[in-house]
Specification:
The chain is 24% helix and 12% strand. The chain is of the alpha/beta class. The protein has 2 domains: 9-204, NADH:ubiquinone oxidoreductase-like, 20kDa subunit (Rossmann fold); 210-327, Cytochrome-c3 hydrogenase, C-terminal domain (Cytochrome-c3 Hydrogenase, Chain A, domain 2). Strand 9 (143-144) and strand 10 (147-148) form a beta hairpin.
Length: 339
């Protein structure tokens, strides 16, 4: 990809403590021409460790020029968590050939970036890399789980005046990334476009539950009992789609898929702390038979009353299909008698 750093919206992409899954997801964006889409939006991808031709000293020169202000840095995108260990030195992740930890590079570049964007939940909140005993002292750019702070600190603001923009997800949806970068490049993104956790509201104002193909089963509390069943996975299979901020079931991967459509429970990967739910991802913890994690904004008493009423009114078709791996009963055909 040819770069004209004097024109357009310059994006620098770094990868830190993570699996690279957000980049793999990005390459599945619904476009036949990834770089053409960026060019059409006026976006220059200055450097990406997996997608750019520059390596070694050539790549370092780009980073150094951005840090020195010789190349305007409009958006610093960071994928993966910040590895602060051991003992705050950052030396668990050294940027090859530079003699400096990645954490130092991110701090230098974030100081001159017009916008700083966390790509994925690891970069946003720490994610999978920060799970367990967290031996690398991993954290997000501006969050450590739900606690604000992270590598850059609670007071950090980019040159635009915005805090870190957290495009959370594990992996993040390619269109969330592309849409955010395009909005930034077009000057259409401001503080009003961010939710309370710094996530773009374009997807975070929705719930995974919205558009789920299992919603009829949810309405009647007709639940799946094993992974291959068609029923709602909230009651027994660990699904948190009614609590999780994302539009996965209305903005599908590759225009066709989502976790719940593939038969997998939503594990709340856009939320801080999802990596340690305190139970197996495929199980729903309960107290007295009632799921601990109830739908957003629904008091427990209401849920218990609704669930009881819904189950008593469940059509036989819905009840039978819920615990089957294929439709065993299709909707009946009702005679309209001319109406």
């Amino acid at each position: 990809m040819a770069i004209d750093a004097a024109k357009g919206f310059n994006v620098l992409w770094l990868q830190s403590g993570g699996c690279g899954g957000c980049t793999m997801s990005l390459l599945c964006a619904d476009t036949p021409d990834f770089f053409g889409t960026l060019n059409d939006a006026g976006i220059n991808l200055l450097w990406h460790p997996s997608l750019s031709l520059e390596t070694g000293s050539e790549a370092l020169r780009i980073l150094q020029a951005c840090a020195a202000g010789e190349i305007p840095l409009h958006a610093l995108c960071v994928e993966g968590s910040m590895l602060r260990g051991p003992h705050g030195s950052g030396r668990f992740h050294m940027l090859a050939g530079s003699g400096k930890p990645m954490t130092h590079w991110v701090q230098e570049l974030a100081a001159v970036a017009e916008y700083t964007v966390a790509i994925g939940t690891c970069a946003a909140f720490g994610g999978i890399t920060a799970a367990g005993s967290n031996p690398t002292d991993a954290c997000g750019l501006q969050y450590e789980g739900e606690r604000i702070g992270g590598l850059l600190g609670a007071a950090y603001r980019a040159r635009s005046g915005l805090p870190v923009i957290n495009v959370a997800g594990c992996p993040t949806h390619p269109n969330w990334v592309m849409e955010t970068l395009m909005a930034l490049a077009a000057g259409l993104f401001d503080a009003g476009q961010m939710d309370a956790l710094g996530r773009p509201r374009s997807y975070a104002d929705h719930l995974v539950h919205h558009g789920c193909t299992r919603n009829e089963f949810y309405e009647f509390k007709a639940s799946a009992e094993k992974p291959s069943d068609l029923g709602c996975m909230m009651e027994h299979m660990g699904c948190k789609g009614t609590q999780v901020h994302a539009d996965c079931n209305t903005r599908l991967w590759n225009g066709d898929g989502s976790c719940t459509r593939g038969g997998y429970a939503c594990i709340s990967c856009t939320e801080p702390g999802f990596e340690e739910p305190g139970h197996s991802f495929h199980q729903t913890p309960k107290i007295a038979g009632i799921p601990i994690g109830l739908p957003t904004d629904m008091p427990k008493a209401w849920f218990v009353a609704l669930a009881s009423l819904s189950k008593s009114a469940t059509p036989k078709r819905v009840r039978d299909n819920a615990t089957a791996d294929h439709l065993v009963q299709v909707p009946m055909i009702r005679k309209r008698r001319g109406k």
